[in-house]
Specification:
Chain lengths: 239, 267
């Protein structure tokens, strides 16, 4: 049952490359916005245009085909814990293979080569045969990014990818994500709590508050007044 | 007790955190009273127990020495084993799709309710009751036993597997769905890895339980060693009964040991 709307009157155009960061207080609808794009949450109204299709109108097979083109990175990594790292990366191809092929792990050699190259790229080649639950948070998130890039997506969604990580690992993850997205020409839409990280890596910042977009522009324009408008209050801002 | 909120109170006592429950105490007294009443109405007196024990001792003496010489023990045991393994296999194969369909986190309510009703139906009857019906329907022999135990396996494995599926992490499912995976691929990569270990445990337990039950369905004519056991009882052939019982214990113990190795291979 649709309850109270979370997102109101939002119109965004994500284009080109680079990272678009969405910031805003908890509960303002950042996750909802990102999950609406690949329809993990269904919007009650509105349109979502991606590669010439209105995703909001899709269902069944066409929706799954559209999802293949949208990679997603999650706050808690959402790896399949009991599968190996390699299986997790290859699960990025699940939109392309039949259940029978997937069950027997009969992936194309090209896919396996690509998955291994990605693991090497994120520094986890030696972990390929380890189970995902043996990895640390930062390592898991690298696998999560590799899985998303494995889809060869036209868009990468990241829902607070660094919120469960320490500051140093957060920076490393942001760099891996930025670099991989740039190498594969994938635009990135990211929800982020750490404003400094957003400013450092994003080319565009969208500030949300109460389900509305209250700022949309370059990271440089994000000053104290605007942060007050986004998060409310001012005591938390360092003077 | 004071109605002021805890933060406004000057002092607190034990009773503010651990309230004695009168209802619980009454329930204990009630249970105890019912036990006394039930024992009284069933005529369980000390004399009755004494008499029963005396009879039991005479009966047990008849067990010795156990008799293993009769030739129908081994074929009976093997038939029981076959009934147990076949019904576990068929029952599990049927239980998997029913369990998936009845998992409320994967299916719409109307589908899961239909699947749930099938599981409840399979679990409603003791295997012996199903065996009696099966013997009437398809005649004496192992087929009736297989039907009876398959029925039980669908209910047991179906229920536990459905519960295991309902407890999985939806985050992992969400990630697999987000890749554009089909429903079957979500099952293969999102659900199966999360429930596989427990599933193997359920099947091993059910096979073990079928092995024990397969020695019993023969009592009503549904094949296996149970039939031999029952006729030995009716002939008052107690040393043969003892022989059969010892062989059944041996079979169940062998099953227990094998189970450990089979589990290890599949995990």
């Amino acid at each position: 049952m649709p309850g109270k709307p979370v997102l109101k009157d939002i119109s965004l155009d994500i284009e080109g490359r680079g990272i678009t960061a969405i910031i805003g207080p908890s509960g303002t609808g950042k996750s909802t916005l990102i999950r609406c794009v690949n329809r993990l949450i269904n919007p009650t109204s509105g349109e979502i245009w991606f590669e010439g299709q209105d995703l909001a109108k899709l269902s069944g097979q066409p929706l799954r085909e559209a999802r293949r083109r949208i990679g997603m990175v999650f706050q808690e990594y959402n790896l399949v814990e009991r599968l190996t790292v390699m299986e997790n990366v290859l699960s990025g191809r699940l939109g392309y293979v039949s259940a029978w092929t997937a069950w027997r792990r009969k992936f194309d050699d090209a896919d396996i080569q690509k998955a291994f190259a990605l693991l090497k790229r994120v520094g986890l080649a030696d972990f390929a045969n380890r189970r995902a639950d043996e990895l640390s948070g930062g390592q898991r998130q690298r696998v999560g990014i590799a899985r998303a890039v494995m889809q060869s997506p036209g868009l990468l969604l990241a829902d607070e990818p660094t919120s469960s990580l320490d500051p140093k690992t957060s920076v490393e993850i942001m760099e891996v994500m930025r670099d991989l997205a740039a190498e594969n020409s994938i635009p990135v839409m990211i929800n982020i709590h750490q404003v400094d990280l957003g400013k450092r890596y994003a080319e565009r910042i969208i500030g949300m508050s109460g389900g509305l977009v209250v700022y949309d522009g370059a990271p440089d324009g994000l000053d104290g007044d605007i942060l007050k408008k986004i998060y409310g209050g001012q005591d938390w801002l360092a003077t | 007790m004071s109605t002021a909120s805890l933060s406004e109170r000057a002092s607190v006592s034990r009773a503010d955190f651990f309230t004695p429950s009168i209802a619980k105490r009454l329930a204990y007294v009630g249970v105890l009273a019912y036990l006394v009443y039930a024992a009284a109405t069933l005529g369980l007196s000390f004399e009755r127990v004494q008499q029963g024990i005396g009879h039991g001792v005479r009966f047990l003496v008849g067990f010795f020495p156990p008799n293993f010489t009769q030739t129908d023990i081994v074929p009976g045991l093997l038939e029981s084993l076959q009934i147990a393994l076949l019904s576990s296999l068929i029952g599990t194969a049927l239980a998997i799709p029913i369990a998936v369909l009845s998992a409320r986190n994967l299916m719409p309510p109307w589908v899961s309710w239909i699947a749930r009703l099938i599981i409840i139906f399979c679990r409603s009857f003791h295997p012996v009751i199903v065996a009696i019906i099966a013997v009437k329907a398809v005649g004496f022999g192992a087929l009736a036993g297989i039907i009876a135990l398959t029925f039980a396996s669908v209910g047991f494995v179906g229920k536990l597997l459905a519960e295991a599926i309902e407890e999985i992490s939806l985050k992992q499912i969400e990630a697999i769905r987000a890749t554009g995976a089909s429903f079957m691929n979500v099952i293969a990569y999102g659900v199966v890895p999360q429930v596989m270990n427990r599933f193997i445990g359920f099947v091993a337990y059910e096979t073990d339980s079928n092995l024990r039950n397969s020695t019993m369905v023969g009592v009503v004519g549904a094949g296996g060693i149970g039939g031999t056991l029952f006729s030995a009882f009716q002939r008052f052939d107690y040393d043969f009964v003892a022989g059969i019982i010892i062989c059944i214990i041996g079979l169940v113990m062998i099953g227990e040991v094998l189970q450990i190795y089979v589990k290890r291979v599949f995990r």
